[in-house]
User: What shape does this take?
Amino acid sequence: MGNFLEEIIEKDLAEGKVDGIITRYPPEPNGYPHIGHAKSICLNYGLAKKYNGKFNLRFDDTNPVKEDIEFVNAIANDVKWLGAEFEVFFASDYFDVMYECAVKLIKKGLAYIDDITPDQLREQRGTLTTPGQNSRHRNRPIEESLQLFDDMKNGKIADGKLVLRAKIDMASPNVTMRDPVIYRVLHAHHHRQGDKWCIYPMYDFAHPIEDAVEGITHSICTLEFENNRPLYDWFLENCDFDPRPHQYEFARLNIERTVMSKRYLKKLVDEGFVEGWDDPRMPTLAGLRRRGYTPSSIIEFCERVGVAKANSEVQAGQLESCIRDELNISAPRAMAVIDPIELVITNRDDNYSEQIDFEYSLGEQNFSRKISISNKLYVERSDFALDPPPKFHRLKTGGLVRLKGAYIIECTDAQTDENGVVSKIFAKIIEGTKSGQGESSIKAKGVIHFVDAKNCVDAAIRLYDYLLTAENAGEDFSKRLNDKSLVVMNSKLEKHLDDAKKGERFQFLRQGYFIRDEKLNDLVFNQIVGLKDSYNK
Ligand code: ATP
Ligand code: MG
Ligand code: MG
Assistant: This one.
């Protein structure tokens, strides 16, 4: 059984209401797409693909003030990255059609020019429980409205002085239907139209026309537009479009501790809280890409979330498990010591160097390569305890632990600095315990990763946490900023990681998944996701 949109489409196709389907993704180019937008892209493109239809990327560029060509390019790039095939359209290319539609409504006596201010309008329109009041210009003669609309268009009217309103029903129980504004005066430069227009259509009027011009059959939007549907239909009917697109609403994607408002994401960028729209902490597609997410993991996430008719919040772990599942069977394994501390092997001298086998499997495939070990290693600071808790099976004085792929060692001593912080660990190799060389009677409960201090490379590893704290859920985002969302570590990595390509992904043993940053020339790895599933199914 498909989702409710698939049922509608299958019924429309079966009954011959449509010959084929056309869907669209209609972003306003005022920011970079985020994971919520990916939901809309995957849904609309997925439906078009499933039913052999067509998918349009239409820039809803009807508000010249907030829009920018940088955003147009970023959006097209991200939609392509997700794998969608599309034709590009710009809503502003239909300004002439919209203007003609507006004139038609005036001529039919279904629109009038008013001089109302936004404040007055709010008061006049009433609320859910109080009816609206007619404007004194509601019955302005058609000829007069036509003349004033012409004056608006020809630059004779200052911003905010006049508006064109649809004449519908000031007593409608749906406030949206109470004579909404459909055109306003705005002397602003448009990124495509230049200074051709000084009147701009409002979203509710423009959107159905854009859909109709492109022959969209199923216009899918989020739930908050449910009340606007009668208005959508009213414009299409009264502007005499035939055939007419239909609007359907689904629940928007919300993820816990994740900002889903372009306006606020822009604020994070503009105020320098993050490094840019592609900061790996950002829920933008550019950020997720830099963080190491693949298109397939995002598509899989959208599939798993499904299409709902009621709003809810998805756990962040659900997105993480999609990339973790994918990398678990595809990412090469390697060793990296994120927070290094030196370990000296006391029963080997400076000439000691040995090659050991580093083995792992990915799905059905087995891999093996040589790595080196010497008398100076780096191990993870957290793998040593001066004062170990019970059942601590890693490095402690007198304790045994296996170095991954190599020997069991016994920790003999540790050095601390003047502040009591451990600065060096000493250990000895237990002879006869080399991995893969027969059964030894000596066992170690723990296995730790390491790198050879004489054959390693320095790298910055960037560890990430959510941008928002878990506390104060529901509060304004600005009160929830997590100041520990980025921690940069000076790490020691296996030498060959020096050659990692930008954008190459690895599993660092016991640590999680990491990607070599796609932008920086320095050796920087971004943490994609940890190994453990924090999401409880
Ligand atoms: P803003 O955050 O600035 O209010 P927006 O997120 O609505 O804007 P648009 O560019 O208008 O941004 O959105 C493009 C499309 O993506 C719209 O069809 C919108 O319904 C859809 N969309 C936006 N956010 C989500 C979301 N969280 N889940 C699903 N679809 C979304
Ligand atoms: Mg929107
Ligand atoms: Mg919006």
